[in-house]
Amino acid sequence: MISIIPLTNAESVFHQSVSLDGVDYVVRFRWNGRASRWFIRLEDVEGNVLLGDRKLVADLPLLAHYVDGELPAGELWSMTVSGEDAGLLDLGVDAALMYVSEDSLA
After folding, report:
1. Distance between CA atoms of residues 98 and 63, nearest Å
2. How far apart are CA 73 and CA 103, in angstroms?
3. Most CB atoms closer than 10 Å: which of 34, 79, 87, 99?
4. What residues are paired with 23 via a beta bridge?
5. Which residue(s) pair with 30 in the sheet?
6. Which DSSP symbol is given to 91?
7. Is the Cα dihedral 87, 88, 93, 95 positive or negative?
8. DSSP string over 23-78
């Protein structure tokens, strides 16, 4: 299954709760003006950091290099219409965060 995680471009720092493969997580988004990039952090519902600040890079998997039983079994992808990395106002407009379940990866 492929899920689009709804995003907003209203704030330069925000978080939202998501359910990935039936497990609840919190995804924190932060715009870094110096780097001109979005970063995300994945936490469990208790606030434990499972994946530290990762750059949102268009069309590259975010979890592929991590083996941790606490992380979702599938993969997170940042996708943009242009194929470029998301800019400050692009989230929810020209950029999306997708989750591909483990079953769909196989």
Report:
1. 12
2. 9
3. 99
4. 20
5. 13, 39
6. B
7. positive
8. EEEEEEEEEETTTTEEEEEEEETT--EEEEEEE--BTSBSSTT---TTS-SSEEEE
Q: What is the pLDDT along the chain (106 residues), one digit of tens a residue?
A: 889 988 877 789 999 999 998 999 999 999 999 999 999 999 999 999 999 999 999 999 999 888 778 999 899 999 999 999 999 999 989 999 999 998 887 6
Residue corresponding to tokens 């692009």: 90
Q: Are 23 and 72 in contact (CB under 8 A)?
A: yes
Side chain identity at 29, as an amino acid letter?
A: F
Nearest CA among 62, 53, 45, 48 for reference residue 99: 62
Instruction: Let me know the angle formed at the C-alpha of 9 by 29 and 25, rounded to the nearest 5 degrees.
Output: 35
Which residue type occupies 50?
Answer: L
Of the candidates 38, 35, 105, 47, the one whose C-alpha atom is nearest the C-alpha of residue 76 is 105
Distance (Å, whole) CA 56 – CA 99: 13
